[in-house]
Amino acid sequence: MSKTILIIDDSASIRQSTQSALQDAGYHVIEAIDGQDGLKQLNGQKIHLIISAVNMPQMDGITFMQEAKKRPLYQFTPVIMLTTESNQNLPPHYSSTNAKAWLTKPFRPAQMVAAVTKLIMP
């Protein structure tokens, strides 16, 4: 059975390219358009990894992570955050998110698959 990954990004092109790369690598992918939509996807199903953009309308990725971690089933689900800011320019409060990895947009799909594979084996 393939591992399930939730992708949360308001950019349809980012969701599409990430989904395509991850499906090609053997993962099952669920999509959400923002943090609020992402929380709706946390409906009791097993999600092995979450990939979330930081800046989104309705609910940003940092708030999403804080809310997701309050849910016992998703408390320890690893998260990869996507940002347009380089690691050197990340605001200090971002370090409190407990994200397992940060990727700067734009990223290569192979870079995403490598990060996912390190966190969860397919």
TrEMBL record:
PROSITE patterns xrefs: RESPONSE_REGULATORY
Q: What InterPro entries does the annotation carry?
A: Bact_response_regulator (IPR050595), CheY-like_superfamily (IPR011006), Sig_transdc_resp-reg_receiver (IPR001789)
Report the record's Gene Ontology biological process terms: phosphorelay signal transduction system
Question: Which SMART domains would you find in this protein's record?
Answer: REC
Xref: Pfam families: Response_reg (PF00072)
Report the residue ranges that make up the Response regulatory domain in this protein.
4-120
Q: Which UniProt keywords apply?
A: Phosphoprotein
The name on file for this protein is: Chemotaxis protein CheY
Which organism encodes this protein?
A: Methylocucumis oryzae
